[in-house]
Amino acid sequence: MYSAAFIFEPGTYDERFYTLDAQIEAAAASNPGFLGRETWQSEDGKRFNATYYWADLDSLKTFSQNPQHLEAKRDYQRWYKGFHIVISEVIRSYGDDNLKHITPNNRS
Q1: What is the pTM of this model?
Q2: CATH of the domain at 18
Q3: What DSSP string runs through the chain?
Q4: Residue 103 included in any domain
Q5: Residue 94 binned pLDDT confidence (cut-offs 50, 70, 90)
Q6: How many structural domains is the chain composed of?
Q7: Does residue 100 sit within a domain?
Q8: Which range marks the domain in which residue 34 is found?
């Protein structure tokens, strides 16, 4: 399992942003290897994190080549003040079973 964390500071969104955002979300959801997404916001509201979870690296790579995703990456300065991507392999995930999460609860 892999995660791709998209950490960003938003700028000004326009109609094209919202259209691309919806298309990118649909592309992720239609990918058989897409497991889900969660979002976080910094306490001051200036920084956001959208983490996408993928069953395998090939699924993530396929998503990264989506034409709308590539367009958004190319034109990111129109909508974001800055961004940072962190791709990680999930090697373990665990909890007390009272908080549902996208990743499996695997204590081993």
Answers
A1: 0.86
A2: 3.30.70.100
A3: -EEEEEEEEE----HHHHHHHHHHHHHHHHSTTEEEEEEEE-TTSS-EEEEEEESSHHHHHHHHT-HHHHHHHHTGGGTEEEEEEEEEE---B---SSS--SS--B--
A4: no
A5: confident
A6: 1
A7: no
A8: 2-89
